[in-house]
Design a protein that fits this description.
Number of helices: 0
Number of strands: 8
Helix content: under 10%
Strand content: 35-45%
């Protein structure tokens, strides 16, 4: 494995408490599992949360997107992909940062009631 072959997650969409991320298909030999790691800016990578995207002995990992849920509104999160190979060694891809949307306090309907 070489980190240069692990793609950087790209932004697809978001709301106040979730991010939808995607990446290029991975065709690295000997992948055992693919994880997306995420953390808040002030946290260390040792405290990062993991989403297991694929856990198999496939040569190609075909899933190219995932949702990150239960996030805080208006908060930046660092994300990266991590690959575990058949020797149980983990390699990390490049990190990037995305923000969730802030809470919108504007009323959804603009209706005036006059009595």
């Amino acid at each position: 494995l070489r980190m240069s072959k692990i793609p950087k997650p790209q932004f697809d969409s978001c709301d106040e408490t979730s991010l939808k991320l995607k990446w290029e298909a991975i065709t690295i030999q000997g992948i055992r599992s693919l994880m997306l790691q995420y953390k808040e800016v002030h946290e260390s990578w040792a405290d990062a949360r993991n989403i297991c995207v694929s856990d198999s002995n496939q040569q190609d990992v075909t899933l190219t997107e995932t949702d990150v849920v239960d996030l805080k509104p208006g908060t930046p999160y660092y994300v990266r992909l991590a690959i575990k190979n058949s020797s149980n060694e983990i390699e990390y891809g490049p990190e990037t940062v995305f923000d969730t949307k802030p809470i919108d306090c504007t009323p959804k309907r603009k209706k005036c009631i006059v009595s």
